[in-house]
Write a structure and sequence with these properties.
By secondary structure, this protein is of the alpha/beta class. Helices cover about 30% and strands about 25% of the residues. It folds into 2 domains: about 325 residues, 3-Layer(aba) Sandwich (Rossmann fold), CATH 3.40.50; about 100 residues, 2-Layer Sandwich (GMP Synthetase, Chain A, domain 3), CATH 3.30.300. Strands 3, 4, 5, 6, 7, 8, 9, 10, 11, 12, 13 and 14 form a 12-stranded mixed β-sheet that branches. The longest helix is centred in the first third of the chain and has 22 residues. Bound molecules: 5'-O-[hydroxy(phenylacetyl)phosphoryl]adenosine (DLL).
């Protein structure tokens, strides 16, 4: 099923003509109302009226997270506070949070996009959605909530945390869709098992997971452990929250970006050059319908690839590949570039390894040392020390073979790595402290 047939299956030409109109209107508005954008355009020698075709936008300057921080808290808002009905913020790991605002119309737009997303991910009006994304300043909880209500599904606003109570709710209310971060979904599965339940006894059809990178191998692990079909949803607070893009359950091959609201580009993160479809680089997004907090050519830092091929689901919107990581999450270990998700992929292919791991990076004698802490299954951990050492060596060898990076592997007791109720902290980079 498709929630908004007209827009989601619009032929390319019509879609691009809408994009151009909306882009032009957004540019004129931000130029008139946001001093930051007026300054940016002026220093690039561009007036909003100069943009007469979509490609012209490539001459507009990028907007970065630093720009948002410099204008903390409300400096990037394009409407007076009177018109702002909601504020969210992303905590970020360093420095000031990023603050975003929504008008009543923005909330409507977001709800529609989330309703579309839920339907693409397999939901219908008849579903009961167990929404374990955090409610609060984080956009996940309320984003899914409004979309679910717009669709007419039943939403359980359980939020993150109180994990045991969540298991009881799953058993008693019989929800059919789970929405959570992938890492929290595994925590829920583990808690259910500890309480003597299994997801096989629950009623989930689909899980709609996002807010953090998770590899294809992690998807398989989740589908196996939770007995559901796992769908990837992507978004970021700066652009709207969840609902920028989602996989369709029909293909599960790339995430459709709602292009009637967002214009995506892929750039080379080092040079800023726009790359053609099919090439991998940093995703840049321009929002073309937002009122309170529009962003122009926002550098997401997320690494992906765009695919314009038609999709079996009938949607015409371009698909982005599963995000492999953020350019600022990329680890450089003695000169070798590696994303945490690549290590995750290697780990998930090894039998006896649990989907809980942490990467610790340190510097010893001026050399980078990567330690991979990984949990193993109960029965494996009770094995002899010698066997564990052999297993550590095998994992280390696999990582070296697949990724070319040298890592120390440390097997740790089951359940000893901290569980998250939201986004998992996969990397501790002591070089940065
Ligand atoms: O994480 C919004 C969201 C909520 C998306 C619920 C999906 C589901 P922020 O807290 O601002 O917003 O974090 C945004 O999280 O730039 C990516 O680096 C990462 N991210 C989000 N979704 C995915 C995903 C929400 N599906 C940042 N795969 C983004 C990989 C993701 N990374």
């Amino acid at each position: 099923m498709i929630y908004n047939i007209e827009y989601e299956t619009m032929p390319r030409e019509a879609l691009e003509s809408i994009q151009l109109k909306r882009l032009q209107a957004t540019l004129s508005r931000v130029y008139a109302t946001v001093p930051f954008y007026r300054k940016q355009f002026t220093s690039a020698g561009i007036l909003p009226g100069d943009i007469s075709k979509l490609n012209d936008m490539q001459s507009l300057p990028f907007t970065t997270k630093k720009d948002l921080r410099d204008n903390y808290p409300f400096g990037m808002f394009a409407v007076p506070m009177d018109n702002v009905v909601r504020i969210h913020a992303s905590s970020g790991t360093t420095g000031q949070p990023t603050v975003v605002g929504y008008t009543a119309r923005d909330i409507n737009t977001w709800s529609e996009l989330m309703a579309r997303a839920l339907v693409a991910g397999g939901a219908t009006r008849g579903d009961i959605i167990h929404n374990a994304y955090g409610y609060g300043l984080f956009t996940g909880g309320l984003g899914v909530h409004y979309g679910a209500e717009k669709l007419g599904a039943s939403v359980i606003p359980v939020s993150g945390g109180n994990t045991k109570r969540q298991v009881i709710i799953m058993k008693d209310f019989k929800p059919t869709i789970l929405t959570a971060t992938p890492s929290y979904s595994l925590h829920l599965a583990e808690a259910a098992e500890e309480m003597g339940f299994s997801f096989a006894d629950f009623h989930f059809r689909y899980g709609i997971f996002g807010a953090e990178p998770w590899s294809e191998d992690m998807r398989q692990e989740i589908e196996r452990k939770l007995n559901l079909t796992a769908i990837d949803i992507y978004g970021l607070s700066e652009v709207i929250g969840p609902g920028v893009s989602i996989e369709c359950h029909e293909a599960k091959q790339g995430l459709h970006i709602f292009e009637d609201h967002f214009i995506p580009e892929i750039i080379d993160p080092d040079t800023g050059k726009v790359l053609p479809y099919g090439e991998t680089g940093e995703l840049v997004i321009t929002s073309i319908t937002k009122e309170a907090f529009p962003v122009i050519r926002y550098r997401t830092r997320d690494i992906t690839t765009l695919n314009p091929e038609p999709c079996i689901c009938g949607r015409t919107h371009v698909r982005m590949k599963k995000v492999s990581g953020r350019s600022d999450d990329m680890l450089i270990i003695r000169g070798v570039n590696v994303f945490p998700s690549q290590i995750e992929s290697v780990l998930m292919q090894i039998e006896g390894v649990e989907p809980h791991y942490q990467l610790i990076v340190e510097r010893e004698d001026n050399l980078d040392v990567l330690t991979v802490m990984v949990e193993v299954s109960e029965n494996m951990f009770s094995d002899e020390v010698k066997q564990l050492q052999q297993f550590e060596n095998k994992i280390s060898k696999d990582i070296k073979e697949y990724l070319g990076v040298t890592a120390k592997v440390k097997l740790v007791e089951p359940k000893s790595i901290a569980r998250s109720e939201g986004k998992a902290a996969r990397v501790i980079d002591k070089r940065k402290i």
